[in-house]
Design brief:
Blueprint: E1 6-11, E2 17-22, E3 54-57, E4 63-66, H1 75-82, H2 100-106, E5 140-143, H3 153-157, E6 180-187, E7 194-199, E8 208-217, E9 220-228, E10 232-235, E11 243-252, E12 255-256, E13 263-266, E14 286-287, E15 302-306, E16 312-319, E17 322-328, E18 338-340, E19 359-360, E20 372-377, E21 385-389, E22 401-402
Parallel strand pairs: 5-6, 18-20
Antiparallel strand pairs: 1-2, 3-4, 6-7, 7-10, 8-9, 8-11, 11-12, 11-13, 14-15, 15-16, 16-17, 19-22, 20-21
Length: 411
């Protein structure tokens, strides 16, 4: 990360282009997350004295600072101050909410522990950036992130160590008992994913789990099923401001066992700094295998999208929030790396419709990057140029980006 300040330009609500400065942000994740904990099911209640102040953020440049982290502003004033340019939301469905105070008294799902700084029974701010109340229930735990950091599935999963697969297991029939303590772990400020964590029954023969996610909306009921051999998994591509129900069912080679208790959850509002779609005008991400000049840690599905600056953006997924970004002049041509003359690609998040300066992959000195052809620029909004990047060209490029934008989108 360079020590200089990079100029930034982005569109305002009235269509004008605003110019300003973006401070280089810290990339040392270890300063924000102290260590890994074994499970979110064994957490004590947070110490209020350790809580830090936060900011309710809307569009860049508009924020409301809260000096008392437990005394919240009136919801209507937040809407007026933070997002005065946002049109009125449709009336939300009525649901009964448990208050944060109730949770602190009745939290019975977690056992006391000294590891209290990662998983919390209530959010730091009980309303999101759009003024909606965040979902609070005994089976829901909250993780915090810095307000200006993009949401990251990879960073969140670092708190859930991988489990070793059981060997020489004596399986005589399907699993007999359901998983217990199914917990929804959500990151405050992130609406597109949750992490589900559960407890395996003692002496059970489950080798895998089917994770069933259901949502109900105007288009009808939708269901997604995924399989894992762990007792936790990330559920991605969720819709903002939507209601879900999650169930986990154990299975082995001889059949499936009884499902867990279903648990509800409602996602918070979308971060308006990440992506605001205008119906009928924005291109949609399309799965399409393209040829790339590969320099990437990601090897998942590939998606392409035509952009307003007459180039194709190609992304290769690590997951829905971490991906490698490429550019190409044609759909059938080579998709090239993107270089940054003044940073390490943080402002390349513009190519996936994010106002945030993103988190990027390992940053090597220029002389350790292979010299190759690619596109490059110095600042956000600047047109790209094609030429040599890396090596003697002294132009950086990286292996992945996290911009807060979910790709391919929502189910």
């Amino acid at each position: 990360m360079p020590s200089s300040v990079k100029p930034v330009a982005f569109p305002s609500a009235n269509g004008e282009t605003l110019h300003g400065q973006a401070q280089s942000r810290p990339t040392n994740t270890s300063q924000r997350t102290k260590s890994l904990w074994a499970s979110p099911l064994q957490r004590s209640l947070p110490d209020p004295s350790r809580r830090r102040q936060n900011t309710v953020v809307g569009k860049p440049g508009n924020s409301v600072k809260i000096t008392d982290d437990r005394q919240l502003p009136d919801k209507s004033s937040v809407l007026r101050t933070v997002l005065s340019s946002v049109t009125e939301k449709p009336a939300k469905q009525e649901r009964k909410l448990t208050t944060a105070a109730d949770i602190r008294i009745n939290a019975t799902r977690m056992e006391p522990s000294d590891n209290s700084s990662v998983f919390n029974p209530a959010p730091l701010l009980e309303i999101d950036s759009m003024g909606k109340e965040r979902f609070i229930a005994p089976h829901v735990k909250y993780m915090m992130k810095e307000p200006d950091d993009p949401c990251s599935i990879t960073e969140s999963l670092r708190h859930f160590p991988e489990e070793e697969e059981a060997l020489n297991q004596d399986i005589t029939g399907p699993p007999k008992y359901p998983p217990s303590n199914l917990t929804v772990v959500t990151v405050e400020g992130c609406s597109s994913f949750v992490i589900l964590d559960w407890q395996k029954a003692d002496n059970d023969s489950a080798t895998e789990y089917e994770v069933i996610s259901k949502s109900t909306g105007p288009a009808g009921n939708e269901e997604s099923v995924m399989v894992t051999n762990q007792t936790h998994t990330a559920v991605e591509n969720l819709k903002a401001d939507s209601s879900y129900e999650f169930t986990v069912q154990p299975k082995n080679v001889l059949g499936v066992g009884p499902p867990s208790e279903a648990v509800p959850f409602s996602t918070e509002s979308a971060d308006p700094r990440v992506s605001e779609y205008i119906s009928g005008k924005d291109a949609i991400w399309t799965e399409y295998p393209f040829q790339s000049d590969s320099y990437s840690e990601c090897n998942g599905k590939q998606f392409v999208k035509r952009t307003w600056y007459r180039k194709f953006v190609g992304v290769e997924l690590c997951n829905s929030l971490r991906y490698k970004i490429y550019l190409s002049d044609t759909l059938t041509g080579t998709f090239y790396n993107i270089g940054d003359q003044t940073g390490h690609g943080e402002d390349h998040c513009q190519f996936v419709d994010s106002f945030l300066d993103g988190r990027t992959g390992q940053q090597f000195p220029n002389d350790q990057l292979p010299q190759r052809q690619g596109y490059y620029r110095a600042i956000r909004q600047e047109p790209v140029t094609f030429g040599e990047i890396g090596g003697k060209a002294q132009i950086n490029y990286v292996q992945w980006y996290e911009c807060g934008t979910t790709i391919p989108g929502k189910w």
